[in-house]
Every structure is written in C-alpha cells, then in structure tokens.
Amino acid sequence: MSSTRQGPGDVSPGPRPASVTVEELQARYAEVNPLVNAVCTPNPAALTEAVRLDAERDDGRVRGPLHGLPVLVKDNIDTADLPTTAGSLALADQPPPPHDAPLVRRLREAGCIVLGKTNLSEWANFRGSASSSGWSAFGGLTRNPYALNRSAGGSSSGSGAAVAAGMAELAIGTETNGSIVCPAALNGVVGLKPTVGLIPQQGIVPISHSQDTAGPMTRTVSQAAALLTVLTGGATDYLQSCRGEDLSDLRIGVPRGPLWGYSTGLDRVSEEALELLSRCGATLVDHLSLPTPGGDEDQLHVLSHELKVDLTAYLATRKPGGPRTLAELIAFNQQHADVELRYFGQELFERAEGTEGLGSPVYVAARLAALRAGRDGIDGLLRENQLDALVMPSYSPAWTIDLINGDHVLGSSSSHAALAGYPLLTVPSGLVEGLPVGITFSGTGRSDDTLIRLAHAFETARIKVHGPFPTPEFRQWV
C-alpha cells in the first residue's frame, strides 16, 4: 500500500482502458474492504459495462471527461440493477427500484460505471438519537481506514471510507446535515454538498426535502467539480472554477464563534490553512461570529414532519411487497429488534410518526425559524463584511467507535448551511496525530462555483507546501 496519493489533476482517464481500471479496483476491494467494510453491494456487471465503454471509446464515441470512470453510489440512492436498502433489513429483501434515480441516470449517460453501493448510517442517521455513524443492520459497520477503531463519520460513511481506501476515486454521498462533509473530513477526502435543488432529489431515500441533497465525494476538488457538472445536468461546467491559486480578488470571512475552539489539534491545522489562503492572495476578515443556529427543537420539528411525508412518498415508488409507510417500518424494527434495535432505538422515527403533516402550525413555524437562522446568519455575515465566502474547521478528528453509547462529536461546520439549504465544500487540510482533518468553505445559495475555486486553490497550495495527502495504513489508533 502506497504512502501518498495524487494531487489535483485531469479527471480524464485518457487512453487507459476502463476494464483495466475496474479490474484493479475490484482487486483493491478484495484486499481492503474486509478491513473497512465500506462497500455493501458490489456490482457484478461492472466489468461488462467497462468493456462496453472501452468499445465505445475505440469507436471514437467518448461521452465526456468521465467516460469509463468507475463511481460508487451510496445505498440510499436508487439503482435499477442493484438493491437500494438505506441500510435497513426492511428493504434488504425487496427487488431493486424500478428506475435509476435521475442522478444515477446522468452518471450512466456521462459514461460512468456504477462500481457498487456504499454502506451508510442506517436511514441516513435519522432513526435513533444514540446512533453510531457508519453502522447499518444491512451493511454492518464501516470503519475509518486511517484508524480502524475510529469512526468513518456519517451518514455517507462508506462513500468517504471507500475513496480514502482506494476502492474508487469517485463516489456519491447524500447530506441532510453534515452527512457528506463529516465523513469526507474524517476520511481525508473532498466532500461537496451542493446548494439544495441543484441535483434532483427523486430516487433518493429521503429525510427532508428542504435539506436533502446528493453530492460528490472524491480524491480531488477537480474530480468533485467534474462530477457536479454531470450530476446537475451539465448546464454549468464547474471545472472552469478550478483555475489556479490566485485568490486576490476574494474576501473570506473567518467565523470563530461557535465553530472553533473544540479541538486544539484541529485549530492548529486550521490556522495553517488560513495562512495558505492568505499566501494565495485572499483577503481574510477574521474574528467574526455566526449566530447560534436556532433551537434543536425547531430543527427536529422540521426533519420529523418532512420525514413522515417524504418517506411515505418514496416508499410508494418501490415495488409492492415491502413497507409502504413509516408506521410499517417502525413495526418491522420492533419485530426484528434483536438486529435492528440492538445498539440504539428508533425514537426519531416514532417522533416523526406522531406529526400531523406539513400544514401543521408547529411545522410551519419551525420551518420559518430554521430557514431564518440559517440564511440570515450566513447572508448577514457575508453582506455586512462584503465577503465572498466563509472558511472554518470541518469536524473534530475521528472519534473512537462506541456502538453502546453512540457518537462523540466535539464540533462541526454544517448546521447553518443545512438549515439554509446552502452549499459546503470540505477539503483535507492536514493530520492530527495521524487522523485526517479538513477545512470547510461555506457561502450563500448557488455559490458552489466560488467554493470550488477556493477549495481548488487551497488544495493546490497545500500540496505544494506539504506534498500529497498521505494514504491510510489500515491500523488501530492508540
């Protein structure tokens, strides 16, 4: 296993046959997936698809820069040829969905090869409040390849761990609040949560239509930009935003409160990241503060109300024979409590089942409060200080896995953007005692291109100074 990995570069596979790449990745899967358990369902047809795409290339039919590139897809995104379980035994024995999710269809049309499905925190980490990220009844426990006894984060655990472990360069995750940027930061990869609505939500097992989105998880920022171009339909070429290190025309805010100060090592690496951004010419406006993003009850009201409505609508798209309502899922979990409820409960499901629909005054008030807390906080800070974006530490270093007591998260960067439906982009910034950490760029709605530009410039500058980011050694961390 190598000690470094490549930096930002061309996402094109060039003349290298896709079939050779797939065979190598399948061999890598056999070697390291038993250690990290990131991929729950490999695609048995991946090599056949690669051969077909090689033939297209040989005939001069190249679909674009992602032609022939393998991609892993989180197991809450519909694939017509592979099961979609959301990590639950309730969907494990059901037929695959009748259609690809629109984003999967776009991937295939661009020439991507679906290499398999990645494990996740069951139901995208919205079932029980004491959950452990990376665990699902269907897929088991995903581990962090940098420290096998530490968390891979959630809920896109498998996507982050698989990219870090070298089982694919490209993966798709989903985020409601931190579920892309958390595992990306903990596993030392790039994670891009786009503005909500840029990527179609259809065919994704939902929590909340106001906060859910899919997004790229990749080795490099340029790969994430190329994937975002495909996932959003191609109207904007986000690769054009990867244009060097010069940030002299940009002003970046540094909101210290409440996003710093919970991890000494993380703060140290993040200060070094600020210095690199300053060397790139960016104007840093320091010592700002974001308001606390509202009460937890408002956020829970929104997610609970939307889950009941959105999940029922999703289940209606699946073939008959499986659960059709949230109440049926709750009953299934009770009937299979020895596995499904072994480590944590389903009180969030039960809370959602007790809601009264999207016309409820409780929901309407909570939704407005959450939206204001997210958007007013971010947009107000940007406007008052004439900023193009914000930068902050991503997440605390990976915590020790504790299936009995659940996660031990010290701090994060995702809540304001989650409430607002705004984009986030996390990029590796360094190591704390051998554990990856990242910095996150945040901005207003549809500022995805600006965040890509910032992240690519930082990534390029960091590699020049520190070299390629080290690859994991698959060891226990003491």
Automatic annotation (TrEMBL):
Q: Which Pfam families match?
A: Amidase (PF01425)
Matches recorded under InterPro entries: Amidase_dom, AS_sf
Top-rank lineage group of the source organism: Bacteria
Instruction: Report the residue ranges that make up the Amidase domain in this protein.
Output: 22-451
Name the SUPFAM superfamilies for this protein. Amidase signature (AS) enzymes
Query: What is this protein's name?
Result: Amidase
